[in-house]
Amino acid sequence: MDSNSNFLKQQIATMRESLFTEGILNEQYATLEGLTNDDNPYFAERIVNMYLAGLPKHMIAIEQALEATPVDFGKLDICINKFRGTSSSVGTHNLVIEIDKMVESCTKGNIEGCKIGFSSMKQELDIMKNKLGAYQELLKQDRGGSPLPDEEDMVTKSN
């Protein structure tokens, strides 16, 4: 292995450790990484990419539910819990904490608490997206800058 490759691997390891230390990620993400194998070497990356791609849909749904007059707390709760489910399945620790605070406000029918919680949640989401995005970019560099192979490519190679 050349020194550039060693340096990149060290950067990846350091950034990964930082993501856990800062609470950006938790053991659920490590579980996803553990599901990566020779048949699906990019499993965790694919899951994170799908999660990141779906974020706007969740945020729009929550925002629309918050802006409705009157607020339908049942609908808002459903939107928040869908977002919580996907976020916890990827292992976004700090973000899930902020989502839980919003769920608590929603359960109490506290619209102002929900709005404050939504703002805090968006801030944590931005932090997570930036840091996890940078980590994903290092992983991409480690595989030579190439995008992830398509699922079809993976199936073709495994047959």
TrEMBL record:
<dbReference type="GO" id="GO:0005829">
    <property type="term" value="C:cytosol"/>
</dbReference>
<dbReference type="GO" id="GO:0000160">
    <property type="term" value="P:phosphorelay signal transduction system"/>
</dbReference>
<keyword id="KW-0932">Cytokinin signaling pathway</keyword>
<dbReference type="GO" id="GO:0043424">
    <property type="term" value="F:protein histidine kinase binding"/>
</dbReference>
<dbReference type="InterPro" id="IPR036641">
    <property type="entry name" value="HPT_dom_sf"/>
</dbReference>
<comment type="function">
    <text>Functions as a two-component phosphorelay mediators between cytokinin sensor histidine kinases and response regulators (B-type ARRs). Plays an important role in propagating cytokinin signal transduction.</text>
</comment>
<keyword id="KW-0902">Two-component regulatory system</keyword>
<dbReference type="GO" id="GO:0005634">
    <property type="term" value="C:nucleus"/>
</dbReference>
<protein>
    <recommendedName>
        <fullName>Histidine-containing phosphotransfer protein</fullName>
    </recommendedName>
</protein>
<dbReference type="GO" id="GO:0009927">
    <property type="term" value="F:histidine phosphotransfer kinase activity"/>
</dbReference>
<dbReference type="GO" id="GO:0009736">
    <property type="term" value="P:cytokinin-activated signaling pathway"/>
</dbReference>
<dbReference type="InterPro" id="IPR045871">
    <property type="entry name" value="AHP1-5/YPD1"/>
</dbReference>
